[in-house]
Amino acid sequence: MNLIEVRNINKYFDQPTRMQVLADLSFDIEKGHFVSITGKSGSGKSTLLYLLSTMDTAFEGSIRINGEEMQGKRNRWLADFRNHHIGFVFQFHYLLPEFSVLRNVMLPALKLGRYTPDEIEYRAIDLLQLLGVGDQAPKRASLLSGGQQQRVAIARALINDPLIIMGDEPTGNLDSQNAAIVFDLFRKLSSERGQTILTVTHDDDFARRSDKVIHLVDGRIAG
Amino acid sequence: MKIFTNIKLAATIAFTHMRARLKQTVIATAGVAFGITVFIFMVSFIQGSNDFVQAVAFEQSPHLRLYNEIQTASSSIMDRADPGAVNVVSHVKPKDILLSLKDGPQIVQALQQDPRVAAISGAVSTQVFYRLGSSTINGSINGIRFEQENALFNLQAKLVDGSFKELSTLPNSIVLGVGLARRLNVKTGDRMEVTTEKGNNFSVKVVGIFKTGLTDIDKQQSYASLNTVQRFLEVPVSYITDIKIKLHDMELAPAMSRELQAKYGFHGSDWKQDNAALLEGDALRKMIVYGVAVTILLVAGFGIFNILTMMIYEKMKDIAILKAMGFSDSDIRWIFLVQALFIGLTGALLGLVFGFLAAYGISKMPYKSDVMITLDHLPVSFSAMYYVTGFTFGILTTTLAGYLPSRKAAQVDPITILRG
Known about the structure:
The complex is a heterodimer.
Chain A: E1 2-13, E2 19-30, E3 34-39, H1 45-52, E4 60-65, E5 68-69, H2 75-85, E6 86-89, H3 101-112, H4 117-130, H5 146-158, E7 164-168, H6 176-192, E8 196-200, H7 204-208, E9 212-217, E10 220-221
Parallel strand pairs in A: 3-8, 3-9, 6-7, 7-8
Antiparallel strand pairs in A: 1-2, 1-4, 4-5, 9-10
Chain B: H1 2-20, H2 22-60, E1 64-67, H3 77-81, H4 104-112, E2 117-132, E3 135-144, H5 146-153, E4 159-162, H6 166-169, E5 173-177, H7 178-184, E6 191-196, E7 201-210, H8 215-220, E8 221-225, H9 226-233, E9 242-247, H10 253-264, E10 267-270, H11 271-274, H12 276-314, H13 316-325, H14 329-363, H15 384-410, H16 414-418
Parallel strand pairs in B: 3-8, 5-7
Antiparallel strand pairs in B: 1-9, 1-10, 2-3, 2-6, 2-9, 4-7, 5-8, 6-7
Helix pairs in contact in B: 1-14, 2-12, 2-14, 2-15, 12-14, 12-15, 14-15
């Protein structure tokens, strides 16, 4: 079963001059797969990820996620869709510095409003413990080390049980030990929970061990 | 329901932001509070003084006045002799008319029955010279029936020495303004002389001294009984020159003035005409107060605008991350709008409290004035209107100041920031 269906995507940048970044891309991603997007810098791999993330809406073609067409949807609808179905992990961890670790993890769930705040807090602590940072919960996010922050960010991405977890070089800023932890975690999520993992990565080792690799060269799929 | 929880969540994020920037938040709130405080204080104080000056002036001026005036004839005798021709008569002299109001006492009686009239008084007013020894002072004398005039102007309260009662019982008795008495150096019980325009001299006895608080009146005016003044002028008892009317509703005065002028053929004027300069001054002072308050609030508004704009630049990353998490543009807008609203609301409420305290404080301050003799504390006006206006003003400016940056925040493109 295909979770993501991409058909004939074209994407242009208008600044500084009009240039084509993605050219007529079409591919499918199956549910529960661990997919890596690779390519040299400037090949359009991040652009592709952000198109699939539903945050970039300026493109030609069709993206269907979980049976829903993303083209031409309104901001509020897309935000709600992200909230329900997509979890993000970024290269530079990107926690909200004024909030506690626990609060950071709880925020997407509070926004979703599926559970009561008490249940959300319980689930958030559970997730933090699963990721080995349970004891950091009451601390301010800005006080954590890089590896710890990234694990908190992953907990935040998981709190709403999303269909897809997207990562923009999630291990790019971590030492090899932390990178291995994150990789194993992603592997486990896709095989045990059936969550689809979609990451942009430079790391060849990381890419080699995924179910599928989308390798971009100058905005086209190579091979 | 979903919108409500969204705003509630936005508000909790907003409060976390504000707590992290407590100092800036407090300063912005203080700015708004200061603006509103100054507004409330100034409006209360200036309106208080306006009200006081008006009260003093209006107490001495009837709502409506009917009188006769010397005027130039509108048509010459030539027009009547040779109608239709072009008649040019240069330098026409004013018509000599009697200043008395024809059938004055009857009109006073008739108007007493009018339901709009609260009090009415027919009086004789004329120019005289007050003389004592070699000094001569020009002034005016009012012949009144004390009961009627008192009903209009509350004369009894203005008496500082002697009594008005003797006016009607003692012939040739007079009550002088306090300034006039001082200039003539007379006291209650002293005798002096009054000379009319026709040159008749009368010896009068001072039976009382009054003080209105208006220097112009106190320095040159006196009261005597109607009969006494009529005798001075050698006119019959039906002779009165002024009909002064107090209405139940003073706003009716201009319309009623026109009505009575048309009905009786007299001249008339109302309190608005008589005090045009005073009312104009009030309006101008009020404009100044509102101008100053709006300026202060605009400055406070710019403060909020600045703080939020700076905060949004600092928080670009956070905004992007919130959007990635699934916060919509309007959720982001609420986060910053809530901050502006909270600052505005707290500032406005504090401003109202401090404004009230400042106004209350100044109203207890003793203050003596030579011009306003009856004033012992600074006059301050307390009206709920100022507080409602100040609050509305404050909320409006801060909302506007918050809306623009929050819209900018909502428009932040998350991708450019997340890609670095």
